[in-house]
Amino acid sequence: MQIVTVMSTQHDTALPDFQLGSLRDTFERDGFVIIRNLFREDEVNELRSQVDRYVRDVVPTLPKTAAFFDDYSKPETLRKMQSLDKHDDWFKGFMSEGKHVPLLEYFIRDGFVPQGLEWFNKLPYDKNFTPAHQDGFYWCRKPMIGCSLWIALDSVDESNACLYYARGSHKLGIMPHVSSNVLGFSQGLPDWDMKGPDAVACIMEPGDAIAHSAEVVHWSGVSTTDRSRRALATFCYGASTVRDEVAFARYKASLQAQLAAQDIDGKPVGT
Ligand SMILES: O=C(O)CCC(=O)C(=O)O
Q: For ligand 1, is residue 241 a contact (CB within 6 Å)?
């Protein structure tokens, strides 16, 4: 079976060329594509155990802005962590050398620049939804070339808050967002119809992954189960892009105001 090596010279995606080509066709048509079994069981177990180590050893040393708990006195309420690659060597290596690197380069037809590695959870019976949004609104790149790979660490379906995508919405361009006041997702599209005909629910098993464009509209709902729903997501933008500093400053100001209102600041998690 022939293996395609894409822009990155050091790694390959370990996916056959016919599959890569058809995945990119879907990605470019719909704005997202599911890649089944991208990570083997042993790889998923390694990711889970590295996350456990990070939560145990690294999170207590970080500012509260790096790990969002509903209640900082209750470890079981951890719902989101950002920039794992900036706080830990193992995740830094994964971010810059994992199999997502050549894959995402292939999808975006540009060089991979790491934007950040994040961990998402939905807690049992979680009432927090993820507002409909476009990642590109947060990143403010010109031109808007960017992508992410959301890797399922648990089984996920409609009952424990799977991701939904508005198929084809990446062709609408980046739309105005407003403050959402949702912890971890500060900006959202105010009037997006989440029941529209183009909404696609992504039902996944551990090791499946979704690549999505920075322009596609996506969201997730609440959980009606006692199961958690953990995922790691690698975000990147194209090496040919630059940041729109004015738009980025506007986004940062909104984020800081929302965090301050929720009493989340630069103080260590353990305080
Ligand atoms: O996991 C979620 O609910 C949201 C994830 C997300 O917005 C993303 O990966 O861009």
A: no
56 C-alpha to ligand 1 centroid (Å):
23
Spatial distance between the Cα atoms of 45 and 47, rounded to a whole number of angstroms: 5
Please state the separation of Cα 139 from the chain's center in Å: 13
DSSP, res 97: H
150 lines ligand 1 (CB under 6 A): yes
CB of 120 within 6 A of ligand 1: the answer is yes
- How far apart CA 249 and CA 109 sit, in angstroms, is 28
Task: Return the axis-axis angle of helices 41-53 and 89-97, rounded to nearest 10°.
Answer: 140
Q: What are the pLDDT digits (tens) for 201-246?
A: 999 999 999 999 999 999 999 999 999 999 999 999 999 999 988 8
Q: What domains are defined for the chain?
A: 17-261 (2.60.120.620)
pLDDT band at 8 (very low <50, low <70, confident <90, very high): very low
Distance 221 CA to ligand 1 centre (A): 11
First-residue to last-residue Cα distance in the chain: 54
Any ligand 1 atom below 6 A from CB of 119 = no
